[in-house]
Amino acid sequence: MPLYEYHCNHCNADTEVLQDLGDPPLASCPKCKNADIHKKISVSSFRLTGSGWYETDFKNGGKCGPKSGGCSSCSNNS
Ligand SMILES: [Zn+2]
């Protein structure tokens, strides 16, 4: 399900909404209920490959983590 980002010109709030392709766009700002809101370019794919996941995984043990089966020389076996 794609993630859409909306920007409200009234209260300047950015709102992220998960919507199906067939869903109608937001008609009003969820925060101030003003209709002066418009859709921004989707940022979902950028977010997933940006900061977060990968870096956290690496710091927590990298290749020796439970996800790859663990190893006998570190404490990441579970
Ligand atoms: Zn608003």
Relevant terms:
binds zinc ion; elongated; three-stranded antiparallel sheet; single chain; alpha+beta; 78 residues
Describe the structure.
- With 78 residues, the chain is α+β, with helices and mostly antiparallel strands.
- The chain has one domain.
- 17% of the residues lie in helices and 19% in strands.
- The chain has 2 helices and 3 strands; from the N terminus they run E-E-E-H-H.
- It has a 3-stranded antiparallel β-sheet, with no helix packed on it.
- The site of zinc ion has 8 residues, from loops.
Computed over alpha carbons, the radius of gyration is: 20 Å
Q: What is the topology, as strand order, of the major beta sheet?
A: 2-1-3
Number of H- or I-type helical stretches: 2
Question: How large is the share of residues in beta strands?
Answer: 15-25%
Structural class: alpha+beta
Order of helices and strands: EEEHH
Mean pLDDT over all positions: 74
Largest sheet: 3 strands, antiparallel
Bound molecules: zinc ion
Distance between the termini: 33 Å
The unreliable regions are: none
Topology readout:
Blueprint: E1 3-8, E2 14-18, E3 37-40, H1 44-49, H2 53-59
Antiparallel strand pairs: 1-2, 1-3
The site of zinc ion has 8 residues, from loops.
Short overview:
With 78 residues, the protein is of the alpha+beta class.
